[in-house]
User: Which sequence fits this backbone?
């Protein structure tokens, strides 16, 4: 398999952190850089957290860029109630020593795409879509370089986790999501319908802890912290490990099944703001614009995570 060039756009978040670790541990993927966006916590913390994770993985040479500190036209909504005040609450972590790049993330995305061959870069947004939508708005020509956008966001059967109708990443910046979903690029979404099946059960967390490495210990500790919220909320055996599904799909797409359908983003309604209106049953004549995943092999997903994370540190 040819190496795939990716840009990770992220708002870490414990599950974002695991996604970054998985990407850095996978030789099939070449991480060109990591762009931080405001989401789970403000930008000052997400850019810091991204660098903490790169250092933990043993990849301090990774380029990390700070991007947009607020949604395109709304006030920022954050998720400290899930991820803690730092976004990576749980074990104590040292401040990163690797530098934050001076260039703005959106400018770097545009520059990188313009310099790349056609269809050669995969964008991997793990948070609100502000950076990606801003880049596409400022420089529509970068679409030529984008092989695919694979994102974590949205929901259909699982409806919402921040409102009754909306998933967090889409809700934070629905205008940005609308731009991305209407961009006309190849798009794959990992909605809550998939991620809620990727549960961190005790045996799966133990597999991380039993690695006997700092990465394994930290992954288990992060999971211990954030799953407390989801266990109480959903009454489930564990917490959904949302964002690593994006990276796992790039490595082993056969772990996932879905449908190529039309997905529209609600930006007007107070009641359903940020809803991903997914035409799962094909009841409209709207043109399909998204591979919207509906299921995954959870055991295979966690086996991949354990295998790859064990190689770090």
Assistant:
């Amino acid at each position: 398999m040819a190496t795939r060039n990716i840009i990770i756009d992220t708002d870490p978040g414990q599950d974002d952190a695991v996604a970054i670790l998985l990407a850095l541990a996978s030789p099939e993927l070449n991480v060109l850089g990591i762009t931080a966006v405001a989401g789970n916590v403000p930008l000052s913390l997400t850019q810091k957290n991204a660098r903490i994770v790169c250092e933990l993985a043993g990849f301090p040479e990774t380029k990390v860029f700070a991007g947009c500190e607020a949604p395109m036209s709304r006030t920022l909504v954050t998720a400290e109630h899930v991820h803690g005040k730092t976004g990576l609450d749980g074990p104590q972590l040292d401040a990163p020593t690797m530098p934050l790049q001076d260039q703005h993330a959106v400018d770097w995305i545009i520059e990188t795409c313009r310099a790349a061959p056609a269809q050669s870069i995969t964008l991997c947004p793990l948070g609100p879509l502000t950076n990606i939508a801003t880049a596409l708005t400022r420089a529509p020509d970068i679409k030529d370089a984008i092989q695919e956008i694979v994102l974590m966001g949205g929901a259909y059967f699982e409806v919402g986790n921040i409102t009754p109708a909306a998933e967090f990443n889409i809700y934070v910046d629905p205008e940005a999501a609308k731009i991305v979903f209407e961009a006309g690029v190849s798009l794959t979404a990992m909605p809550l319908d998939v991620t809620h099946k990727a549960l961190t059960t005790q045996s799966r967390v133990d597999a991380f802890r039993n690695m006997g490495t700092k990465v394994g210990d930290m992954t288990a500790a992060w999971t211990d912290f954030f799953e407390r919220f989801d266990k109480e909320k959903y009454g489930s055996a564990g917490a959904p490990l949302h964002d690593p599904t994006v990276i796992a799909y790039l490595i082993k797409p056969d772990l996932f099944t879905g449908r190529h359908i039309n997905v529209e983003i609600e930006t007007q309604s107070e009641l359903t703001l940020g809803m991903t209106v997914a035409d799962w049953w094909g009841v409209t004549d709207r043109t399909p614009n998204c591979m919207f995943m509906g299921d995954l092999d959870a055991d295979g997903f966690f086996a991949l995570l354990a295998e790859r994370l064990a190689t770090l540190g």
